[in-house]
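Notes from the 1:1 (GR / supervisor)

We went over the backlog. Supervisor wanted to see one worked example end to end before approving the batch request, so GR pasted a single chain during the call. The sequence is below; no edits were made to it. Supervisor asked that the structure be written out right there so they could see what the output format looks like.
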Amino acid sequence: QIIQGYEHTYLMLHKPAGVVTANKDRELPTVMDLLSPDIQSDKLYAVGRLDRDTTGLLLLTDNGPLGFQLLHPQYHVDKTYQVEVNGLLTPDHIQAFQKGIVFLDGTVCKPAQLEILSSSPSLSQATISISEGKFHQVKKMFLSVGVKVTALKRVQFGDFMLDSDLAEGDFRPLNKEELRIIKTYLENSG
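Structure output shown during the call:
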């Protein structure tokens, strides 16, 4: 569908668990399979990936420059996740994340903001904001402080917030406010 002044398609998808961020997969359902046939297109792609078991905000578009603008490290677009882990989170963890977690292989992560929402020895909930997207980064960051991620959901990507009315597996076109954000990102990439 053509939105006035926008010849591209821009969609927000609430990705469910068990679905891969790919256009095609031989065995597993993909995010493209969630779209209605009238919207499906070979030109559409997801801006950034979410692991198969990660849920939450995914942007889909057929506009290549936008993906570059949102994903290229030089632009430092923050991504925020709600996370559940199988152990205790403490203020020491907040400091460790702010310093930048170092993986076992020596990979250094940029500083991340960790906010603990609830903490107990068997289950803790938090939000984490990162500005990069290394492979399985959030899961590895928590593993390096001794807890395992049991649920992960992206709730924010740059200036885009997951629409709380969007059920898992559902999608919608971006609204006027979100299209203004797109326009700003694209203008800044020039």
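Supervisor's comment: The first helix runs from residue 64 to 71.
Batch request approved.
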